[in-house]
Write a structure and sequence with these properties.
Helix content: under 10%
Shape: globular
Radius of gyration: 14 Å
Number of helices: 1
Number of strands: 9
Order of helices and strands: EEHEEEEEEE
């Protein structure tokens, strides 16, 4: 991640998730992975794939993605997709760890206002994913083609 990168996910970002554990949004809802607390998280229900869709509201160039899972419930074989066509921007393999992990996007990525993070598999036997922190880092300044 370079020095020009800023956090792209803020309170104006619209978020959708594939599922919530036991449909209990009060305890495990999507907003908890974005609230900055180390005590709260989004917990998916079982089944694969799981995903998080992010609508930033305006185009942004993603340079990196940061995520903190709960060990034992980490995503494996993950993708960051961009735009309505869901172009593959980044494929990555997180560790089964509770530490913050950052993945750098290729320099040839294009700017999009909508992104989808797909967890094609999980370290959990039932396909559940638990995310304590999620952030996209990049720039609102779109490079001219």
């Amino acid at each position: 991640m370079d020095n020009d990168s800023v956090p792209l996910i803020d309170s104006t970002c619209r978020v959708k998730v594939s599922s919530v554990l036991n449909r209990d949004t009060r305890q495990f809802g999507k907003h908890f992975m974005l609230d900055g607390s180390e005590e709260t998280c989004w917990n998916s229900d079982q089944g694969l794939p799981q995903f998080v869709s992010l609508d930033l509201g305006k185009p942004a160039l993603v340079k990196a993605l940061s995520v903190r899972f709960q060990g034992g419930f980490a995503g494996k074989d993950c993708l960051l997709l961009g735009g309505a066509a869901e172009l593959e921007l980044l494929a990555f393999l997180p560790k089964d760890s509770s530490s913050l992990q950052t993945f750098t996007a290729p320099t040839n990525c294009t700017a999009h206002s909508a992104y989808r993070l797909v967890f094609k598999s999980s370290t959990d036997l039932f396909g559940r994913v638990t995310v304590y922190h999620l952030q996209l880092h990049g720039s609102w300044k779109v490079q001219a083609a």
